[in-house]
Structures are given as structure tokens and as C-alpha cells.
């Protein structure tokens, strides 16, 4: 399997949309995740990430300019026990509540569909990291329309056990810019997790994203041996 350079992949198009990366640090010590958002409209660009308990939420940078909050204000990251949930919408809460009730990651997402933003029908992408007793595994999911047909749902879940150091997977909402926006296709992209720590990892992704369209980035390193974590947030607004 060909693992490509994460930063080159993230910067390959001007508009990958929202993206999730999960993998293992180069030294093998940390479970790694990143979540970024981009925007073309003034409403989408008027956002920042803020800490919310053990996770984060989006909020309007300038509340007076907030137009429609329905698809842009949500909690992308929540923590449930030894699981860290990362998604591109309010399905974070759906997964959290479902897993709390004993459902699996995939079962919890059966309640949801792609986003109701015709004609794009933006996919819902989701991930979960499990760090427990010195072991780590993760899953990724994409819920999308069938080639733009709103009457048909395509649901895919990908599971990765015993992931190797310096390797991960990257999934994002769009193949690139367009009108309507073309949905991501295929399996999550195998990527190399480089950098010499969380700051290098974070800076590499942020610098790779298109300058005009990038909005916010969240990263987290979770020590596999202990479950302790550290996080970073970069917001274009306010820089």
C-alpha cells in the first residue's frame, strides 16, 4: 500500500472541505488526530474552534454576521471514556449518545444521512479513536448520497486495528472545488504521519491548506501508554 505525504495530500486541491486525519505518530508513542474546516461563503468562514470540556466546538467569530447556524455550529470533538469522537457535524452527538447506550460506532451512525445542503449533499465524515490499556485502534466513516442522488444513501465504515508508527488515514468531504461540490470517493487515503511532535504536525497541515479557504484546525496527540493527551487549535480569524 502506498502511503502518501499527508501535507501534500491536504494541499493537493484548493477546497477539500472538511477533513479528518487519524493515525500513529512517527515515534509510535501517540494516537494522532486532526480535524480542519474550510469555507467559501462568508457564513462558513465566520467561525473559530474553541475548547469545550475534553473536546471542542465551533462558534461564530463575529456573532452579528452569523446567518444560518444549522450546519456550521456543532461539536466536532467529544470524549467518551477511552474513545475520542471526531466528526464534521452534529453527528458527533449522535455517535456519543449511541455509544453511551452500548451501540457500536457504525450502528450509531445508521440514524444519520448526508447533510441536507442540495445540490452538494455534503458527506458526513466521522472517526473514533480508542486508546485503552496501551493499545490503539480506530474507525472512519462516510455517509454520502449515491453520486448526487438524494434518494439513495451510501454508507461506508473502515476499521483499522494495530496501526503502525508513522501511518494513518485521511478522509475529507470533497474531491476539490466545483459547483456542485464533488463528494469524496473511495477509501480513506493512506498517509504518512510525519513531524517531530504535535507542533510540527499541526503547522505542517495548516501551512498546506489553501490560504484563502482554510478556517480552523484542531489536532490532538494521545499517549497510547497512558491516555494522556495534548491538543492544539489554530483559527484563521483573530490571527
Please characterize this protein's 3D structure.
- The strands form 3 sheets. Strands 1-12-11-2-3-13-14 form a 7-stranded mixed beta sheet.
- It has 5 helices and 14 strands.
- The chain is mainly β.
- The protein is globular.
- A hairpin with a 5-residue loop joins β13 and β14.
- It has a single domain (4-235), classed as Glutamine Phosphoribosylpyrophosphate, subunit 1, domain 1.
In terms of structural class, how would the helical and strand content be classed? mainly beta
Overall mean pLDDT:
96
Oligomeric state: single chain
Which residues sit in consecutive blocks of at least 5 with pLDDT less than 50? none
- The CATH superfamily is known as Inosine monophosphate cyclohydrolase-like
CATH topology: Glutamine Phosphoribosylpyrophosphate, subunit 1, domain 1
- Percent strand equals 35-45%
Output the radius of gyration: 16 Å
User: Strand order, biggest sheet?
Assistant: 1-12-11-2-3-13-14
The number of distinct structural domains comes to 1
One letter per element, helices H and strands E, the order comes to EHEEHEEEEHHEEEEEHEE
Give the tally of β-strands.
Answer: 14
CATH class assignment: Alpha Beta
> What is the CATH architecture assignment?
4-Layer Sandwich
Largest sheet: number of strands, sense, barrel closure: 7 strands, mixed
Amino acid at each position: 500500500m502506498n502511503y502518501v505525504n499527508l501535507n501534500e495530500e491536504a494541499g493537493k486541491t484548493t477546497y477539500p472541505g472538511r477533513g479528518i486525519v487519524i493515525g500513529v505518530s512517527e515515534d509510535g508513542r501517540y494516537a494522532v488526530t486532526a480535524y480542519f474546516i474550510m469555507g467559501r461563503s462568508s457564513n462558513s468562514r465566520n467561525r473559530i474552534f474553541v475548547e469545550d470540556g475534553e473536546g471542542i466546538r465551533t462558534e461564530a467569530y463575529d456573532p452579528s454576521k452569523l446567518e444560518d447556524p444549522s450546519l456550521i455550529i456543532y461539536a466536532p470533538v467529544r470524549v467518551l471514556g477511552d474513545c475520542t469522537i471526531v466528526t464534521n457535524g452534529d453527528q458527533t452527538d449522535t455517535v456519543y449518545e449511541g455509544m453511551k447506550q452500548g451501540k457500536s460506532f457504525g450502528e450509531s451512525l445508521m440514524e444519520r444521512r448526508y447533510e441536507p445542503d442540495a445540490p452538494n449533499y455534503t458527506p458526513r465524515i466521522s472517526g473514533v479513536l480508542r486508546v485503552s490499556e496501551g493499545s490503539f485502534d480506530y474507525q472512519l466513516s462516510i455517509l454520502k448520497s449515491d453520486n448526487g442522488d438524494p434518494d439513495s444513501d451510501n454508507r461506508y465504515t473502515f476499521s483499522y486495528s494495530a496501526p503502525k508508527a508513522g501511518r494513518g488515514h485521511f478522509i475529507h468531504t470533497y474531491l476539490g472545488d466545483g459547483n456542485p461540490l464533488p463528494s469524496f470517493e473511495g477509501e480513506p487515503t493512506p498517509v504518512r504521519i510525519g513531524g517531530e511532535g504535535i507542533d510540527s504536525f499541526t503547522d505542517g497541515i495548516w501551512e498546506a491548506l489553501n490560504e484563502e479557504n482554510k478556517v480552523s484546525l484542531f489536532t490532538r496527540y494521545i499517549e497510547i501508554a497512558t491516555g494522556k493527551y495534548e491538543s492544539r487549535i489554530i483559527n484563521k480569524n483573530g490571527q
